[in-house]
Amino acid sequence: MTADSLAAPRAPHSAPRNKGVNLEKWGWLYMRASGVVLVVLIFGHLLTNLVLPEGGVHALNFAFVAGKFATPFWQWWDVLMLWLAFLHGGNGMRTIINDYVRGEGVRKTLVWVVWIAVAVMIVLGTLVVFTFDPCLGVTEDSTLWTACQAA
User: Fold this and answer.
1) Could you tell me if residue 16 is inside a domain?
2) 29 lies in which domain range?
3) Per-residue confidence of the chain (151 residues) as pLDDT tens digits?
4) Dihedral of the CA atoms 39, 82, 64, 70 (nearest 10)?
5) Rounded to an integer, what distance in angstroms lies between the CA atom of residue 35 and that of residue 41?
6) Helix locations, 101-144, DSSP H
7) Count of the separate structural domains present in the chain
8) For residues 63 and 146, what is the distance between their CA atoms, to the nearest angstrom?
9) 29, 117, 124, 149: which has the highest count of C-beta atoms within 10 A?
10) Is 150 within a domain?
11) What is the distance between the alpha carbons of residues 145 and 137, in angstroms, rounded to a whole number?
12) Has residue 18 been placed in a domain?
């Protein structure tokens, strides 16, 4: 076989292959699995927030969100959706960078920037969901004053 020809697709490899973990394969599998789970989470989110409440989308307000974030089930639902979405998007951006950026230093820098941004957004989003307090900063002239005093 010459340098200009390709081996047949089913031909055995002539060079020894890396026996380590194939991160590209696991990234590819993660994209498929997280995509399926995200479809379920997102459509469940849209259904429970926009379709099922009486009044539809017009029922969506601060009190509605505060009520959902008071329930651990919806907190974990939204956090799981947040984590999967950011990791899915970050992995997709990593793939695009690997495909289109030629310079090794620039490519590595961009991949690091993507993962740092993903990590920061996951931490901030998780903090918002689990530390959400609808009564924070409520004053006597607010419409939430009576509800927050009862709590």
Assistant:
1) no
2) 23-135
3) 555 676 676 766 565 666 788 888 898 999 999 999 999 999 999 998 888 878 878 888 887 888 888 889 999 999 999 999 999 999 999 999 999 998 999 999 999 999 999 999 999 999 999 998 887 777 887 777 777 776 6
4) 120
5) 10
6) 104-131
7) 1
8) 13
9) 117
10) no
11) 10
12) no
Question: How far apart (Å, rounded) are the C-alpha atoms in residues 63 and 104?
Answer: 49
| Four-point Cα dihedral 31, 47, 83, 71, nearest 10 | -150
Strand (E) or helix (H) holding 78: helix 72-100
Is 8 among the domain residues?
Answer: no
* 7's tokens: 């081996």
> Which has the closest alpha carbon to 89: 67, 115, 68, 62?
115
Question: Cα(1)–Cα(11) distance, rounded to whole angstroms?
Answer: 12
How many Å apart are CA 110 and CA 115, to the nearest integer? Answer: 9
Residue 44 near residue 80, CB atoms below 8 Å: no
